[in-house]
Structure formats: C-alpha cells, structure tokens
C-alpha cells in the first residue's frame, strides 16, 4: 500500500507560508501523546510555528489520551509508539473497543516494519517516523485530518502477516496449550508422542517465532491474541 494523500514536497518548518492561515480556514486541532518530554517539546515547537495547526494538549499516557478523547474535540491524535502506561497497539485496540471517533497518526522512533503492519491492522490512519523531515510529519497529520490514510509504502498482501501467521495448525495448537500452562510431559501424554518429540516441536516453534523460550512464546501469543480486532456480530 503506498501512502495516500497530498504529494509530499519539501517545506520549511518555519516558512512564511506556513505561518499564515487562509482567511476563514480552520486550523487542524492536534493532541500529542508521548512519554518523552523532549519529544513533546519538539513537537510542540514545530506545531506552534506552523499556522495550520492548533495544539490543544500533550499527555504522556494512553489513559490520559483516551480520557481526553471523551472530553475534548480534536482532529488528530499524534501518538508515540511507547507511552508511559501502554504502547500504540494497546491504544489503537482501546479506540476500536470503545468505538471512539479518533483519527490517529503514530509517531514512531522504531523502524521495525512489524510495528507499521500492526498499526495498519489496528486502524491507524497515519504513520511517520520521529526522524522524518518536518514537512513529512506535517503532511501526514494534514492528510489524516482531511479523512485520508497516509502511511509509508507497505505491501498490502503482507499487512496481515504476524509472527503467528507462519505457524502450522498443529503449531498453533501447541502454542495454545503452552499458554494454558501445559508441561512437556502433559503434552506428550495427551498427544501420544514422546517428550523428546515435544521438545523437538517446541524448538521449531521457538525458531519460527524468533524467541528463546516458552515464556517468550506464550507472551507473544497472548499479545497477538489480545490485540486481534474483534469483528462485529451481525
């Protein structure tokens, strides 16, 4: 999927054109959620120097942002991937669960393509990096405010790929019983295979998930299961 929205052209963060708002044009109302005070300060200065935006507030936790969404009218929330109490995926999942009318741009300092895929799956409308030029950040926020989706290039056919997507049905079943607390002996007894065979399957499972042990595999499984959006019934 290529980024949609206005063409991204070089634009100075302090250019005269950005400090002027067309007569009658309403500024885009923005709130920022980011745990790092230095990042908040930089975003505040950038947005306040650009006449197209109005910064309504900045918070450091997902809980504060969700509360703000209920009590404050704004156009776009710019959120960091790691907040004080939760990460961006948790926030996006909560927005879906609570059916909040909130348009979100994720402002990430991590170049992990897996995070981008996760944000797309969970409904983020915009995505940019903290090391992007200011004009890219501005244009992403504007595109999202105007009802578009603006993200870096990503192969749409692979957007639903997760670490669990590559597992076989049997491996998924194995991961599920691990999360239920089954020991190797219990798995062997109930499936009719030897403990050594169970250990062999677990090693393959860990290799596919790129984890080192049972605890990490279960944590990954629980995280993916919790964040998978639930489809409405009926």
* Structure classification: alpha/beta
The low-confidence runs, each spanning 5 or more residues with pLDDT under 50, are: 1-20, 229-234
What would the average pLDDT be, to the nearest integer?
Answer: 82
Instruction: Give, in order, the helices and strands.
Output: EHEHEHEHEHHHHH
Helix content: 40-55%
Overall geometry: elongated
Beta-strand percent range:
5-15%
* Number of DSSP E strands: 5
Distance between the termini: 29 Å
Strand order of the largest sheet: 2-1-3-4-5
User: What radius of gyration results from the CA coordinates?
Assistant: 21 Å
The quaternary organization reads as single chain
Number of helices: 9
Note the main sheet.
5 strands, parallel
Q: Would you mind describing this structure in some detail?
A:
GO terms for molecular function: DNA binding. InterPro entries: CheY-like_superfamily, NreC/VraR/RcsB-like_REC, Sig_transdc_resp-reg_C-effctor, Sig_transdc_resp-reg_receiver, Tscrpt_reg_LuxR_C, WalR-like, WH-like_DNA-bd_sf. Keywords: DNA-binding, Phosphoprotein, Transcription, Transcription regulation. Residues 160-225 form the HTH luxR-type domain. It is a single chain. This protein is of the alpha/beta class and 234 residues long. It is 44% helix and 12% strand. It has a five-stranded parallel beta sheet with strand order 2-1-3-4-5. Helix 6 crosses helix 9 (214-227) and helix 7 (184-191) packs across helix 8 (195-209). The longest helix is centred in the C-terminal third of the chain and has 15 residues, at 195-209. The radius of gyration is 21 Å and the shape is elongated. The model is unreliable at 1-20 and 229-234 (pLDDT under 50).
